[in-house]
Amino acid sequence: MSDCIFCKILAKDIPTQVLYEDDLVMAFPDVSPQAPEHILIIPKKHIPSLAEMSAADEAIMGRIVQVASALAKERGFSEGGYRLVANCGEQAGQSVFHIHFHLLGGRGFEWPPG
Ligand code: 5GP
Ligand code: ZN
Asked: Which ligand has the minimum distance to the alpha carbon of residue 6?
């Protein structure tokens, strides 16, 4: 998708610090961090939102969760606890329509979220 900012990051048209990359996913720091650790984990495949994923995308989603768990351990905030969030749709606050999971750590979090 030529007008998708995360596809541009994947294509390296927009320079980003790559924290993790494999055949299915990439992880990089959020440009506007909401916690001491705020990482975005995205599929390489352009899927606009969770509402548009299909059963064929199951392996991608499994990989995202596995990478989140591994990154939290590797970066030392797993034990303290963290949050893995995907906003789906405008009402939930989704602003970039390429699936992404926010991995947030390094501070306490409230529940329920706002
Ligand atoms: P959403 O609101 O869709 O759940 O989350 C989108 C996230 O993408 C926001 O936290 C925002 O800060 C982040 N973001 C938007 N544009 C860029 C960008 O160009 N680079 C990076 N690293 N993050 C971005
Ligand atoms: Zn995209």
From this structure: 2
Q: Is the CB of 16 under 6 A from ligand 1?
A: yes
Residue of 9, 32, 103 to mutate, ligand 1, most atoms within 8 A of C-beta = 32
- Locate the DSSP E strands across 1-114: 20-21, 25-29, 37-43, 82-85, 101-105
Positions marked catalytic: 100
The residues with which 20 forms a beta bridge, in sequence order, are 27
Measure 46 CA to ligand 2 centroid, in angstroms: 4
Which two structure tokens, joined as six digits, stand for 50?
């969770």
Rounded to an integer, the average pLDDT of 80-101 is: 98
pLDDT in tens, 2-51: 799 999 999 999 999 999 999 999 999 999 999 999 999 999 999 999 99
Interacting residues of 77 by C-beta distance below 8 A, sequence separation 6+ = 36, 37, 105, 106
